[in-house]
Amino acid sequence: MNSAALSLLTLNILADLSCWQQRKKLLVEGIGQLAPDVIALQEVRLSEDPTQPNPAEWLAKQLGYTQLELCPKTGRAAQFEGLALLSRLPVLSHFCLDLQSQQRVAQIVALAWGDQKLVLANCHLFWQPGESLERVRQVERLLQHLDAIPGNPYLLVCGDFNGEPHTQAIQLMRQRFLSAHATAHGAEPVYTCPTPLKRSTWSLLRTMFNYLSVMRPGQMRLNWRGVLDYIFVDPRLSVIECRVVLDQPAVNNPRIYPSDHFGLFARLKIP
């Protein structure tokens, strides 16, 4: 059995790169101090333009991660955005699961953890304020896929679920997994999103369009903040720690944060 602890960071990195030059310095410094074994990123900006480097590729190079797996969204969105996983553990396999709505995907990566096999699902689920039947369907599809993996590997699911703790999709996840933060602290964080990061006009307009596209203008609250980000852990694993990270602004600008989400960092161990 593997007795070494595994460290994992999940972060929605924000596809809007308008403040990237300032943010990337905070990301390298903050992630470098954490030195996680595995990094799961959401909202990774993709581009065919070689003059606009992929943020995940840039971070992997700066931080010394030699294993990088990218998982684009489906449809037209595949040209612009996806998920990424950076790992110091050997990658055994990689698969992009089509979640069949809103061009969303789940990134399924099998990793060698000592002499054990670990399967990690990196997610960015259906965006809809409040309850969402589509988000529940995506969770059900993800769980069905994980159940079908042979060999009974250890499972982790993390990312931006776009659902608050009381919603049905998150309650469904809790029926199968431990929430790492709630296990370590007895509750979820106060909030993980949004940070005070200054967002571009394009990003704000996209958010407004999304509200209208899911027909929930009544849910628009300028002062909203809540928990959307989670690390869900196989009950066979022990949670050593879990905490909110990348939650401090730049020293010279209180409006510049690493992202519009805080990150979650956990250390886990086979008991």
Number of spatially distinct domains: 1
Number of helices: 6
Measured as a percent range, the helix fraction is 10-25%
Output the helix-strand order.
EHEHEEEEEHEHEHHEEE
Within CATH, the superfamily carries the name Endonuclease/exonuclease/phosphatase
The CATH class, by name, is Alpha Beta
The N- and C-terminal alpha carbons lie at a distance of 10 Å
CATH architecture: 4-Layer Sandwich
Shape annotation = globular
Query: What is the CATH fold-level name?
Result: Deoxyribonuclease I, Chain A
Q: Which stretches of 5+ consecutive residues score pLDDT under 50?
A: none
Percent in strands:
25-35%
Task: Tally the beta strands.
Answer: 12
Account of the protein in words:
- By secondary structure, this protein is of the alpha+beta class.
- It has a single domain (about 5-270), classed as Deoxyribonuclease I, Chain A (4-Layer Sandwich).
- About 25% of the residues lie in helices and about 30% in strands.
- The chain has six helices and twelve strands.
- The strands form two sheets. Strands 3-4-2-1-12-11 form a six-stranded mixed sheet. The protein has a six-stranded mixed sheet with strand order 5-6-7-8-10-9.
- Strand 6 (about 105-115) and strand 7 form a beta hairpin.
- Helix 1 packs across helix 2 (about 55-65) and helix 3 packs parallel to helix 4 (about 170-175).
- The model has no long low-confidence stretch (mean pLDDT about 90).
